[in-house]
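Hey team,

Filing this mostly as a record. A colleague (T.K.) asked me to run one chain through the structure pipeline before their review meeting, and I want the input and output archived in the tracker in case anyone asks later how it was produced. No errors, nothing strange. Just documentation.

Input sequence:
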Amino acid sequence: MAANTEKSSSLSEADEASADACPTVSQLRSLLDNRQTSSTNRVDEVWPNLYLGDLNTANNRYELWKLGITHVLNAAHGRRYSEDNPDFYGTSITYHAKVLVHCVVGISRSASLVLAYLMIHHQLSVVQAICTVQKNRRISPNAGFLRQLLSLDEELRQTRQNHSRPEMRNHGEERRSEQKET
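Output structure:
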């Protein structure tokens, strides 16, 4: 019986790749806890030109210079993300800048901001975003941030479904028209 409980509370590899999976906070926590990432660095590149790090790195001008960091986004205080933040570094990355997103330790608040960015601007599900970031850095967003990310995931999923439906209907109507003409 315990084996069944473990299976239902964690995500399988197939679920991780699926944008349609609707995980729970406990499933995301399990995914985060079960991922083995060797990185214990103060800063890591988690997406091209997008770095996740800690406060010490953000305050070290020499380290920023060595990495080629051109923009620093401080997530140490305030909300996990806002509508302005993802646009800020989406724009910066477009112009070939290197962006460091940091909080005090670089594993919860700033990680949540980076996950939201990947979900919004690269159409990743929350699970895909977590798996992508964890390939390069250990992260551990708190339960409150995970709930907010799940809410964002659901909102983005619904928006994408709503945008794809009219196209599907139009495509279906075009095919029916073509069949009638022949």
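Quick notes for T.K.: Confidence is low (pLDDT under 50) at residues 1-19, 80-84. Strands lie at 43-47, 50-53, 71-74, 99-102.
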